[in-house]
Amino acid sequence: MAEIQVRTAGGAYPVHVGHGLYEEELARDLMRIRPARVVLVSHPSIFELHGGRLSAALDAGKGGPGAAFTFLFPEGEGNKDLRTLEEGYLALLKSGITREDILLAFGGGVVGDLAGFLASTYMRGIRYLQLPTTLMSMVDSGIGGKVGVDMPGAKNAVGSFYQPLAVYCDIATLITLPGRELRSGLAEVAKYGFLYDAGLLRILEGWPGGLPGPGDDLAGVVAGCAGHKARVVSADERDLSGERALLNYGHTFGHALESACGYGELRHGEAVAVGMMMAARLAELTGFARRDLSEQHRRVLMPLLGDGSLHIDPDQDRVLADMQTDKKKGERLRFVLLEEMQAPRLIEEIPERFVKSAVEDTLEMLRRAGLCN
Q1: Residue range of the domain that includes 279
Q2: Cα dihedral angle (38, 42, 48, 54), rounded to 10 degrees?
Q3: Residue 248 falls within a domain, yes or no?
């Protein structure tokens, strides 16, 4: 088991990575915290797969508090909205949840974002824990306290920074992930590789078909990515200095693709994978990077898209328009670009013609590969 510390203005908290965390670390920590009650926020499918095991770990007979109740909401990015948030507020109010209680965000990125925002705003803030159950949320969204909901055409447009008391990445929950979902999470692993860690890229390239085998050290990969995320969050908790903004590599393009395709058509990691290829092409077109950067990205990322399940037909003009609503742009649209591998920089004021060409060239490459209509 690995433990990584995230240091913030409000104090440090641990990210646990390993097996059996619910029965050991989580049960132990809840006995120490001693909340009056526990609230589980999740999706029905996740709760069906893993809820029994979690509930057993929370059972009062094991020395910890029992779950007060469970708030379940439907899967999909389209349900990470104000309507679902209001339903959560009403459920907590009806059950009489107070600041003496604790909320467990039990699921992937959508659950973590919405449940964290629910915790940050209900009763002006109640304590919560992140229990990510997808690779994507373990290596990225579950760490760092960025929580929120989507608005029409604007992903994560309403939210806050609200840190959990701890994060528990139990690798056993990844066993039930479909291949497409696991590949989506591996796109975020690749992001850390491009930004900071060539060793992660070598691991990904060594996995046939883009997926780890039974003997591969997935826990080590998760811990490595969590370490990079923790370091960046500790240095730039509220995304002010530009250090944390580097983690948005591929996301300016990726979020626009998600919106243009309609939330749910693309997994977040798939959109980010395509977005990173667009960013690599943009770096080449502007002369910021050498001409082989796109090929390096394709070699790592195409196996994460090429299982035949990705068939998108984005409106190119819609992609460009939706980029203008990206929440991270400030007064000008900003891009994270690589000068070379593991050498990222934050760049503004790129001529629109280069951005348009990067989108066009990447979508054409996907068409030739049979992944885009």
Answers
A1: 236-368
A2: -30
A3: yes
